[in-house]
Structure formats: C-alpha cells, structure tokens
Specification:
It is a single chain. The chain is an alpha/beta fold. The protein folds into two domains: 128 residues, Aspartate Aminotransferase, domain 1, CATH 3.90.1150.10; 226 residues, Type I PLP-dependent aspartate aminotransferase-like (Major domain) (Aspartate Aminotransferase, domain 2, 3-Layer(aba) Sandwich), CATH 3.40.640.10. Helices cover 41% and strands 16% of the residues. It has 14 helices and 15 strands. The strands form four sheets. It has a seven-stranded mixed beta sheet, sandwiched between helices. Strand 5 and strand 6 form a beta hairpin. Helix 5 packs across helix 10, helix 12 packs parallel to helix 14 and helix 13 packs across helix 14. The longest helix is centred in the C-terminal third of the chain and has 25 residues. The protein is globular, with a radius of gyration of 20 Å. The N and C termini lie far apart (45 Å). The protein binds pyridoxal-5'-phosphate. Pyridoxal-5'-phosphate (PLP) binds next to helix 5.
Length: 372
C-alpha cells in the first residue's frame, strides 16, 4: 500500500465499539439528531422537511458554506470547501505536495498529518515540543528544521494528542516566516473553540495568511462526528479550485441529510460549545483529583485546550502493557504512546465524554490492582 496503515484507526477499529469504557476518544459527547433538529430555527426545520436525497453540491450546500464563512473574518463561501475532515487532509496534502518536497509537521501527530506526505514521496521533519510543566513548541526548533525545499508546515492547534496551544505572537511569527519564505501552511483546527481560556483562541491560519489552508469540522468540538462534516478554508482561490477538483475523485459531494443537520448545528454553535466545555471542565476536576491520588504511578502534562492529553507512567512501566491490562481487567480503552510515536512511557487520555469520571474510576481500580 502507498500509505502505511493508520495505527490509531486500526486500533480503534478493533476496540472502539466493544470496550465498555472509552477513556481516550478525541470527540466531545455526541448529540442526538432529535436534539439538533429541536434547537433548529424555522429555516432549519423547513430545510429538513423538504430535504431531497439527491446529489449535493461538490463544494457544499451554499447555506452551509455561508454559515461556515461566518466563523472567520474577511472570508466568504468561496473560501470554503465542505468535505469529511479526514478527507480534507488527504485533499490538501495531494494538492499541495509532490515527490521531493520537504514537509515539517508538529509531532506527535494525527497520522494522516504526516503519513500522506510520506506516501507521496516527500521528506519529513518532526517538530517536537519541549517538555516542562506544559508542552511547548519552540519557534527556534522549527526554524532549524526549515530547508530550501520546505514546501509545507503542518500545524495542529489545539494539538492532538498533547492538548498544547501556542501564544498568538508565536503563531503570527510562524505565518510571517512562512510568508517570507513562500512556504504553505496547513493548520488542522479540529479542536478550535475548546480553549479552556477563550482568550487564548488563535485566529484561523486561513484568515491570516493567503498560503494557508485550515481544516475544521463538526467531529470534535461540536460532538457530531457521525455527520462526517468538516471543511477546508483558504483565501487562495486557485487552491480552492484544485481542492474541489480533487474531491471529484474522493467523495464528489457530502451527504444531503448531514449538510442540513450541520447547518442546524452551526446555528446552535454557542449552545453546543458551552455544553461541551462544561463537560470538559467538569472532567478536568476529576482528572486533577485522580492524578493527585495516583502520583506514584501516573502523572499528566496539563493540556490547555481540546479533549486530549498525554499521561506519563512512572518508572519502567511500558504504556502498551499498561493499556492492554486496563482494557483486559477493567474494560477501559486508552491509547498507548507507541500508536502515536509518542514514546512508550506515555498514553493518551480523552476527556470530552460525559461518562469519563466512571471510566476514570475503573482505571483507578486497575491501578490499585497493579500497584499492590
Ligand atoms: C487532529 C485531527 N485531525 C483530523 C481528524 C479527522 O477527523 P474525522 O475523524 O472526523 O475525519 C482527527 C480525528 O481524530 C484529528 O484528531
């Protein structure tokens, strides 16, 4: 196969729908279709009642694109292509890259953010964060990785799996540096709106820099992964044309019911985000207590945004063994670090789901069993 197997997705395929306690998922608690429709204003209800199940527009329903464009300053529906989130990464990498290009990706990373580039014959450098009290992506480290063949810098902010953020000054400096050197930026913003402190929300890269493509969608922050709706945005019209053309070879267009539900969800976005941040903040309190109780076995590097963090096992405990035991003994699904090339003493924890405290109590029971 041209692209190496997606380690995390292969693992989830095996366990996600059978493990009783999911403690490593990246999405927020999902919402029922009935709820989305009941929040809908008359326009959404009308669109739903008159929904025709024919093909839809390749770039996305015009009303949906307009609703999405409102999330950005200075952008309109021409700057938006609706697609499945994972598809958006595939489209952008294929349009932007060719064999021999050099790519820099924030690391560890959601695998398609670097694997597609490798499959296309690009060379890759990993921009690793420094570990202090929190994870920090240092700009000087990034500068050292830039070469004359560098075509693309791949960012993911808020970051999966560390929950790291960046200050706006550093973010703008990256865009300025990319602009000076003519480098494209792909910014995965799937966890945007889940900043624990709203003031730390970054502007979208696509809004700030013409050679940037941003990815966002409804799967994570909005808790609607079953809709399979995301979008690419860029102010570069020629690039948007190329992305839409390539979509003819992937899905052609999105699902008609999903598009209408997505319009409804975006029109109720404040309610949805408030609800999801409420769940997250509640879960973080439970996590802080958990890490205080089990400090001799496990610690975490506190996240600043999103639904994910990396936890570190004390001593020589291998996270693959630890995670396999948690699943076998207590039915708790975690993600071991080696599935994300994040190191064998780390595992990923997800805290966007309502039943997280229950899953955490199970993990605590497992730790008590192995720590005696
Ligand atoms: C950073 C990041 N980007 C993109 C995606 C893809 O989203 P979806 O699974 O909805 O296609 C994910 C999913 O986990 C992700 O974490």
């Amino acid at each position: 196969m041209k692209f190496a197997p997606f380690k995390l997705e292969r693992y989830f395929e095996k366990h996600e729908f059978s493990a009783p306690y999911l403690l490593s998922c990246s999405d927020c608690e999902s919402v029922s279709m009935t709820d989305v429709l009941s929040w809908g204003d008359p326009l959404v209800k009308d669109l739903w009642r008159n929904l025709d199940l024919g093909y839809t527009e390749t770039r996305g329903h015009p009303l949906l694109r307009r609703e999405i464009a409102e999330l950005y300053h200075g952008m309109n529906e021409e700057h938006i292509l609706v697609c499945t989130p994972g598809e958006g990464i595939f489209l952008a990498m294929n349009v932007l890259l060719q064999e021999g290009d050099h790519v820099i990706t924030m690391f560890p990373a959601y695998q398609s953010l670097y694997e597609i580039a490798l499959g296309l014959g690009c060379s890759l450098d990993r921009w690793q964060p420094r570990l202090g009290d929190i994870w920090t992506f240092n700009l000087r480290d990034l500068e050292l990785l830039i070469k004359k063949e560098t075509r693309l810098i791949v960012l993911n902010l808020p970051h999966n799996p560390t929950g790291a953020m960046m200050n706006v000054g550093d973010f703008r400096e990256i865009l300025d540096m990319a602009s000076r050197l003519g480098i494209y930026v792909f910014c995965d913003e799937m966890y945007r709106y889940l900043e624990f402190n709203e003031e730390s929300r970054l502007p979208s890269a696509a809004q700030e820099y013409k050679k940037a493509v941003s990815l966002c969608g409804l799967s994570k922050s909005f808790g609607l992964p079953g809709l399979r709706i995301g979008w690419l945005s860029s102010k570069d019209k020629a690039l948007m044309e190329n992305l839409a053309s390539l979509k003819d070879y992937t899905t052609i267009c999105c699902s008609a019911p999903s598009e209408i539900l997505a319009i409804g969800a975006l029109r109720s976005r404040e309610l949805l985000i408030r609800r999801n941040l409420g769940i997250i903040k509640n879960n973080i309190l439970a996590l802080e207590q958990f890490f205080a109780n089990y400090a001799n076995v496990v610690s975490w590097i506190p996240p600043q945004a999103g639904t994910l963090a990396l936890c570190r096992l004390a001593g020589l405990l291998d996270s693959s063994v630890f995670c396999a035991g948690a699943l076998e003994k207590e039915g708790v699904l975690l993600v071991p670090g080696d599935l994300m090339d994040a190191g064998r003493s780390f595992f990923r924890i997800g805290f966007g789901r309502k039943n997280m405290p229950e899953a955490l109590a199970r993990l605590a029971r497992y730790i008590e069993k192995i720590a005696v």
